[in-house]
Amino acid sequence: MTSMPLYQQIAVIAICAVVTIATRVVPFLIFKPDKPLPPYMEYLGKVLPGAVFGMIVVYCLRNTPVCKYPYGIPEIIGIVVTVAVHLYKKNMMISMVAGTIVYMISVQMIFI
């Protein structure tokens, strides 16, 4: 397999950087701080975080083998820890990190 020449690598990195910065800047250009957000944008701001989180859960569990060992037990343990920590701490980042750590320990040390 051949790798890209240096100029192509630089071009790809530059394009990715410009697109990433643009996605952060454009909303501030479109929606001025002195004007209220349109109701549809407020609605999206309320429902999208939960929808994205649900989509991530479905994506992560789509190939879980439930008919052979370990029967999805590490995934269930990870989900239970994530939900429990989130209900206790009310912090999405802490709950995701805790659930991920417990899941990784489960699959690499317990359910091998």
UniProtKB/TrEMBL annotation:
Q: One Pfam family of this protein, by short name? A: AzlD
Query: Which residues span the membrane?
Result: 12-31, 43-62, 69-88, 94-111
- Domain of life assignment: Bacteria
Task: Give the keywords, sorted.
Answer: Membrane, Transmembrane, Transmembrane helix
Protein name (Swiss-Prot/TrEMBL): LIV-E family branched chain amino acid permease AzlD
Please tell me the species this chain comes from: Dialister micraerophilus DSM 19965
